[in-house]
Amino acid sequence: MLLAPYPPAVAPNQRFRFEQYLDYLQSNNIHIDYTPFWSVSAWKIIYEPGHMLRKMLALMGGTINRFALLGKLKRYDFIWVHREVLPIGPPVLEFIMARWLGKKIIYDFDDAIWVENSSKANRWIVRFFKFHSKVRKICRYSHLVSGGNHFLADYARKFQKRVVVIPTTIDTQHYHNQTKEVREIEAPVIGWTGTHSTLIQLRQVEKALAQLQKHCNAVVHVICNEDPLLKDVNYRYIPWKKETEIEDLLAFDIGIMPLRNSDWERGKCGFKALQYMSLGIPVVASAVGANKDIITHEKNGMLLPDNQPETWVPALIRLITDNQLREHLGTAGRQRVIDEYAVESNKERYLRLFKDER
Q1: Span 283-313, pLDDT tens digits
Q2: Do residues 228 and 237 make contact, with C-beta atoms less than 8 angstroms apart?
Q3: Rounded distance between C-alpha atoms, residue 79 and residue 103, angstroms
Q4: Which of 87, 179, 186, 272 is in Cβ range 3.0-4.6 Å of 257 for a Cys bridge?
Q5: How many CA atoms lie less than 13 Å away from 142 in the CB half-sphere?
Q6: What is the pLDDT of residues 156-167, one digit of tens each?
Q7: Could you give the CA distance from residue 318 to residue 327 in angstroms, rounded to a whole number?
Q8: pTM above the 0.85 mark?
Q9: Which neighbouring-strand residues pair with 150?
Q10: Are 258 and 307 in contact (CB under 8 A)?
């Protein structure tokens, strides 16, 4: 049984973390019952303002359904948990499954979810409900832990010996299967993609982008589910849509992935960089966390030590004015993804989660 927060095919992190492997696992006699916490109707409102009564009812309904599963677990060899069984409170169900029912939990997470990442205004509320310390406890209860990068895996190893690294990956054959055509650019497009929760990362280079536009006729594209409202930057906001995601990304001449140097960012799995690279788009990224594993500076991308304008502006100008460098980094970046961060090169790792005796 797979226990995940969201319904299938709606959450990007789940789509690229494990959903694209489910058919392969099924074809190898790994039968999986996918059971999300939130219903489709709840997913549509959970991150929208208001709807408090509906959200509370959805939370209660999801919690009741999770407890009801306890009577059905006997027929499953493994319980595959992505992030957590319940979105609030301590890991009561994980404890019952592992300690009382003797089930083997395979625990997967792709963010530093033990780190508090909330504003001062609601930090105490979030701390009370989210129970961030549950991560280390779930690691202890688990049969095996899979982390999305080495930083996450190193944290898990403090509490569990059986830990593997499985990166978040890209389907380079069926989805990210096109490449950017390098061209002479009079108005280069500097692109960023993400969700509202990661806009703080884009704002790290807001001043740099404004300075860049004083030197050249660059335009910034932002693909997101929320307008970033950038100051002093000539940008185009493109609402994220699954149907046009690849087309929108291919409009980028250069993709950027700024990150702050904190534990939360070190837990990121470099997905933005992987998306750009898989499409042959040269990437400029902060030298933080998984980015340092994915990118080799000036070989398949550019890594910058910080987010200050004095480092980002020259790097971007260099790429804008050097067509051959953009083409080289784009080609090498896509090959890097195919070799190490593609579905095809990682599917056996997922199969071994359930096949190997550990």
Answers
A1: 999 999 999 999 999 999 999 987 777 899 9
A2: yes
A3: 7
A4: 272
A5: 32
A6: 999 999 999 999
A7: 13
A8: yes
A9: none
A10: yes
